[in-house]
Amino acid sequence: MNVGIVAQRGNRRAARLAADLRSRLDEAGVAVRFDEETARTLDTAGVDVTAFATCDLVVSIGGDGTFLFAARGARDTPILGINLGEVGFLNAVPPESAVEAVMAEVEAHRDGKLRTRNVPRLAARVDDWEGEPAVNEVVVQGPRRGRGGGVDVEVRVDDALYTSGHVDGILVATPTGSTAYNLSEGGPLVHPRVDGLVVTEMCADGGMPPLVVPPDSEVTVSLSGAPSGVVVSDGRNAYEVVPPVDVHVARTDPPVRLAGPEADFFEALNKLD
């Protein structure tokens, strides 16, 4: 069995916990892989995070940002999130229970009883290009935020016009991502058990309220009236487009597979600023 471990960058507590997990997993005859940054901290060999797709379990130690980084490489490998005192919508295990929780998942895997919950991913598509899958959100925006940097849009949900006008951008979020960038843009909180997508306009001139649409919807954002636009997945890997252009956003496979206990959504809400 192979377990991949990602520790939050620059966090000594996360690095110590990663070292403790390695010792316990070694004793149990489990091979351990670290991402390159964690490996440098622990002075050992590391692998690119994309290699975690071939692991049997991935452990993320830190906050939701660390989890998103791990998820990019894990693809459909189950992920167990250990929360180091942050908001932690994706990380349900406290550090004092980390070793016990990881070993429980290892035993469950060995017994063929590992249970997981699926969390959806989104991807943007422009002609033949498809963006990196996003756990939280896909943003389609003008060349920059703020005055003079917006773009004209028409937004359609399964070919039905939802809104149009001048905006900084359009944000399409999963329920998981509703608590992240979407919330800061005035979008609604969505409980993770609600199956749907959230469409939120960013600094619109007029416009419509945020909208929750069915999970299998395709959201098409047509850009015009600007020299360029940008498509961003989970705050990374910006892809420049040239209006007029249609950007299609919809769910994509594979979903994230969460292992271990489920996070308490309302407890995590209380940690929001």
Number of helices: 6
Q: Please estimate the helix content.
A: 10-25%
Tally the structural domains: 2
CATH topology of the largest domain: Tumour Suppressor Smad4
Categorize the overall geometry.
elongated
- The CATH C-level class name of the largest domain: Mainly Beta
Q: What's the end-to-end separation, in Å?
A: 40 Å
Question: Which strand-content bin applies to the residues?
Answer: 35-45%
The largest pleated sheet is described as:
6 strands, antiparallel
Low-confidence sequence ranges: none
Largest sheet: spatial strand order: 6-5-16-13-8-9
Mean pLDDT over the residues: 95
CATH architecture of the largest domain: Sandwich
Main location: cytoplasm
Catalytic activity: NAD(+) + ATP = ADP + NADP(+) + H(+)
Family: Belongs to the NAD kinase family.
Function: Involved in the regulation of the intracellular balance of NAD and NADP, and is a key enzyme in the biosynthesis of NADP. Catalyzes specifically the phosphorylation on 2'-hydroxyl of the adenosine moiety of NAD to yield NADP.
